[in-house]
Specification:
About 35% of the residues lie in helices and about 20% in strands. The chain contains 10 helices and 10 strands. It starts with about 25 loop residues before the first strand and ends in a 10-residue tail after the last helix. About 40% of the residues are buried. The N terminus and C terminus are likely disordered. Bound molecules: adenosine-5'-diphosphate (ADP) and magnesium ion. The site of magnesium ion has 2 residues, from helix 1.
Length: about 280
């Protein structure tokens, strides 16, 4: 992309914010992306605010994963713009996204089973290894201290920070992948189906974790098929269908049935009768 990291929402027409209006932590304008003949994203706008959890829902193939991969630098959009805290940014690689404070937890979690929790949390921290060289006992102690601190901050309970990841349950593993993002100073955390493989108790633990992220002031994006989870934890629901963003709901002012109708396309009948009452105005 020819985009350069410059400009701000206020400085050009795209999404210009009125004085006093909150600027999203992350926003996308007119993002399109095709894979050969398949147009996975069609002119999609998206926004998440600091201290907000957005649920991204839609049927299989709706474009949810493509959208978050665009935000995380895995997919490069054919057109459109990305803004972080009001500033136009260029995200062409996963490293660009991380540089801008955008962290993504995929379903496979990318953890190393044979390493313990501390090692997993600090894996890939080039800054640590470059600056400090081979890990000294002090560094190891410092990493352990930071690990205990961040797990406490997020209310994550695991047997020991020295447990090998292979010995942890699915929920505990998910609970390790998320604090890792905090240690990298994330401002936005995206989670693709974080509870898909989890039982009831483990799901509760992960939903709690998402609440903690919101309390820390992060913007959180959660893809989920489970509307019960969505309704329990998110503030706004964005519905995608066939590559388009087709509805936005405030969860406190809507029902799961309305969201299902939007996902399946059944809401068009309602729109014809009731106007677009089911679609809420963007709330800052
Ligand atoms: N890397 C890819 N190559 C080709 N087609 C892709 C690729 N990624 C996604 N698609 C297609 O884009 C569409 C949207 O997919 P996806 O974003 O994974 O949807 P969702 O996550 O909502 O199920 C689908 O038709 C899918 O087959
Ligand atoms: Mg997907």
């Amino acid at each position: 992309m020819a985009d350069v990291a410059s400009g701000s929402i206020g400085a050009n027409g795209a999404g210009s914010a009125a004085p006093g209006e909150r600027v999203p932590e992350l926003s996308l304008k007119g993002i399109s992306k095709s894979f050969g003949a398949v147009q996975a994203l069609k002119d999609v706008d998206f926004e998440v605010y600091a201290g907000e959890v957005v649920g991204l829902v839609g049927d299989n193939g709706a474009g949810k994963s493509t959208l978050i991969k665009t935000i995380s630098g895995v997919n490069i959009p054919d057109s459109g713009e990305i803004y972080v805290a009001g500033h136009r940014v260029n995200i062409s690689t996963p490293a660009d996204a991380v540089h801008h404070g955008i962290e993504t937890v995929y379903q496979d979690l990318a953890l190393c089973d044979n390493l313990d929790v501390v090692a997993n949390l600090f894996l890939g921290r080039e800054d640590t290894s470059v600056r400090l060289g081979p890990l000294s006992p002090m560094t190891e102690i410092e990493m352990e201290r930071r690990t205990v601190e961040v797990l406490r901050q997020l209310d994550v309970k695991i047997p020991s920070v020295r447990s090998v990841v292979a010995s942890l349950s699915g929920g505990q593993r998910q609970s390790i992948a998320v604090p890792k993002t905090i240690l990298r100073n994330a401002r936005v955390v995206q989670l693709d189906e974080p509870t898909a493989a989890l039982g009831v108790a483990q799901t509760k633990q992960v939903l709690n974790l998402i609440r903690r992220l919101r309390e820390q002031g992060l913007g959180v994006v959660v893809i989920s098929h489970n509307l019960a989870d969505v309704f329990e934890v998110v503030d706004r629901v964005i519905v995608m269908r066939l590559g388009r963003r087709i509805a936005t709901f405030d969860v406190h002012a809507t029902t799961p049935e309305q969201v299902v109708a939007a996902i399946t396309g059944a809401e068009f009948a309602d729109v014809a009768e009731n106007g677009d009452a089911s679609e809420v105005a963007q709330q800052a």
